[in-house]
Amino acid sequence: MDALFTTRDVNIEDTEGRTPLWWAARSGHAGIARLLLAEDCEMNKEDKQNRTPLHVAALYGHEEV
């Protein structure tokens, strides 16, 4: 698992400004979110619609995230 984070940018964005943490939060993947947070990803990064990972987790009812 360490190799994944040493060779990848955990804050990479798609064309809409969404990060891996944003997608983990949107999809309800709490375990992946914890891994990304442990790697110091930007937890308050907003997408182009000004939504943070916390916003989308709440919007889709993913309380565990």
TrEMBL record:
ANK repeat boundaries on the chain: 16-48, 49-65
Pfam families: Ank_2
InterPro entries from the UniProt entry: Ankyrin_rpt, Ankyrin_rpt-contain_sf
Source domain of life: Eukaryota
Signal peptide: none
Keywords attached to this entry: ANK repeat, Repeat
Matches recorded under SUPFAM superfamilies: Ankyrin repeat
Name of the protein in question: Ankyrin
Species of origin: Clathrospora elynae
